[in-house]
Specification:
Layout (H helix, E strand, L loop, with lengths): L6 E4 L6 E6 L3 E8 L4 E6 L5 E5 L6 E9 L3 E8 L2
Antiparallel strand pairs: 1-2, 2-5, 3-4, 3-6, 6-7
Length: 81
């Protein structure tokens, strides 16, 4: 897990799904395009890991934003075909 971020993404790059693992309980996951348009938002199940389906997203770079009970962190995700 990245010490700067509160979460990690695996696999990255990814094509159909991405696993989010956090240091704290996940409250919300948002995926945003590089230009700032939100393309996915879902509540967390209050666990420390979530699997997010991304198969419908076009190929490209995205910001994944994870909100926990104490912070919000971002990481880049490369979506492949």
């Amino acid at each position: 897990m990245d010490p700067i971020n509160e979460f990690s993404l695996h696999p990255n790059p990814a094509s159909t799904k991405v696993n989010v693992m956090a240091k704290r309980q996940i409250r919300e996951i948002r995926i945003v395009t590089i230009t700032g348009r939100e393309v996915l938002s879902r509540p967390g199940s209050n666990g420390y890991s979530e699997t997010v389906p991304i198969g419908i997203l076009p190929k490209g770079l995205y910001h994944v934003q994870v909100t926990t009970d104490i912070s919000t962190s971002r990481a880049l995700l490369y979506k492949t075909e």
